[in-house]
Amino acid sequence: MRRRFHVMVATVAVAAVSVLSGCGRQRTLRPLFPWLFGMQHVSAQLWVEPGMPDSTRAALLRDLGLSRLRLLRWFGRLQSRPAVVVCVTADRARAMGLRGAHAYTLGDRAILVGPGGLRERTLTHEWSHAELYRRLGGLNAGAIARVPRWFDEGLASAVSEDTARAEANWRELESSGVPTPSLDEMVTMSQFADAKADYPPVRVDSLPHVNRVYATVAHEVLGWLRRAGPLAPVRLVDAMDSGESFGAAYMRLGGEASER
Asked: Is the terminal CB of the chain with fewer CB neighbours within 10 Å at N or C?
C-alpha cells in the first residue's frame, strides 16, 4: 500500500514538471523516480537496468563503497546518499535522459550513469557534486550557483582522480605551451560549457587525449586541497553559511593566492 502511494505521488510530480517545463525537462528528472521507468532496486542506493549481469552489479556495489571511503576523507560524515541509477545500454541511458555524457547529477538526489561511466572514478566524481550540493542547500536552483562552476568541477575531479595522473596531465600541458582556460572563464555553468567548446581535448607528447578544462580545474583545486587539508570543502561551506564570500573563504583556507 505504501509503495502504491509513493508511486502515485511520484507520478503526479513528474506530470507537474512536464506541464511546467516540457517533455525534455521531464526526461531529465526520470532518475528521481527510477521505479516508474522499469529500473530494478539492488540496494538502498543502487538501481540498475534489468538484465544487468550479476558480476556488474557486484562491481557497482564495490565501487560505491570505494567512492564513499574516498569522499569521507574530504567531507567527513557524508550528508548525501543520492540514488545511483545505472544503465548498461545506450538505448536505456537515452530513455532515462542521458545525452552526450557518461553521467550526470540531479542536485543531491540522484546520479544517472550510462554505459561509459561504469567505474569508481565516475561514481566518486558525481557523488562529490551531490555532497557539495547537499551542503550548499540541497535540491535548490540557487544552491549550485553559490560556488563557481570551476570549483564544483575541480573538486569533483580532484577527489576522484588519481593525483599523480592528474598532475602528469597538467605538467604535459604546461611544458607543451598549449593554451588553457582561466578560472574567470569558467564561473557559470554556461561559461564552463563554452570553455569545453573553446578548449577541446588535445594530444600532448605521450598523452593522446588531455582534457584541458578538467586538467586546469583539477590542478587548481588539488593545490588548494593540499594547502587547506582534509575537510576543507566542509570548512569552506561553513564559512559561506556564516556570511563569508566564496572568494574570501577560498583564499583564506587555501593559504595562498591562485596564479590562474
From this structure: N
